[in-house]
Please model this.
Amino acid sequence: MNNPTKLHSPRWLLIILALSVGAIHAMAGGTAFSKLVVFGDSLNDTGNLTRLTGGVFPNAPTYTYGRQTNGPVWVEYLAHDLGLANKILNYAVVGAMTKPAPGFPTGNVWSDTYSGLEGTDVASQVKEYGIDSHERADPCALFILEGGANDFPRVQDPSVIVANLIDSLIALEKMGARHILVVNLPDIGKTPRVILAERLGYVPPGSGAFYSGACAQLNQALAGAVAQVTPQSVTITFADTYGFMNKVEANPAAYNIFEAQMPWLMFGAGTDPVEWFFWDDLHPTTRGYEIFADQVVDELIRVYRTRHSNGFGQGDFPCRRHH
Model:
């Protein structure tokens, strides 16, 4: 099992230098951002649902405490790489939808199993942060906005998912958030749940391709909508879970992955989980999350370098730390 405290020991120092080229030569505090503020579902949750369920789920022996995988999730690896391992403000909850929907008034798909999950949807998470911050977002924080996978099979009109995420994005921008990482929808058609269901005849042939295409269209719509509502003063970086999943499946050996389609929990007994991409039928292993975090770091560096080379001002960069 991987531990983010042992990974890439000098890497975050290089990242800081890359992010601070030109505009920020000497940052006090040791990092380009002040903290990570995280919203989302099981891809991002590090223990909120477990606390809400009194330690019941997710937990051992199937999962690491608070995470639907076998170790840290990607936001933890990202935080370590950015020098923010102890500066994560995490509102994400396993099972969260983007907003409540017909048939799911709590906005959480686990509400049929556990009580007390009202107000755990992504929009409510953002509202909770607004209350906690007195509607004044930290302009030096990196905000992570993720959601939609739990809505996808339950909301008939996919445009609702995009609209809900855009509402949360606008709310963050109005509060003063200036650095936002938007996570797009993963390729649900490439998950073990769909692959196995199609192979076993539980869903019609071609279902995987249909879901993949639908997710791609939704992500395209999301990217277009984000561009329309984001002012120049806000830096948006996209974390492309969809493209990442497809790259790993197309060439798993490039990532030292042995199995990229089946879940370790079902078929991996006697093998090392570090060689598997999926832990259960929907969620990556902690190794998969680690690889994804590395790619997100690379994208952050690319985005901030591009803004600098295009002549944007210092306000478009991660802030100096003032003491």
